[in-house]
């Protein structure tokens, strides 16, 4: 395996790891609401 193909495989694994971490956190950069509420955050509207 050449050095360039090894670095490309490492880059692909990094992208996959970031994708899986974003899926586990429920985060989408394209969603209007952003992240989903975690255990310590209020969920829903906070205005009266």
Describe this structure in words.
The protein has 48 residues and is mainly α. The protein is built from one helix and no strands. It has one helix at residues 3-25. The protein is rod-shaped and about 55 Å long. The termini are far apart. The mean pLDDT is 75.
Q: What is the count of β-strands? A: 0
Individual helix count: 1
Shape: rod-shaped
Query: β content, as a range?
Result: under 5%
Short précis:
The chain is mostly helical and 48 residues long. The chain contains one helix and no strands.
Key features?
rod-shaped; mainly alpha; 48 residues
Give the topology, please.
Blueprint: H1 3-25
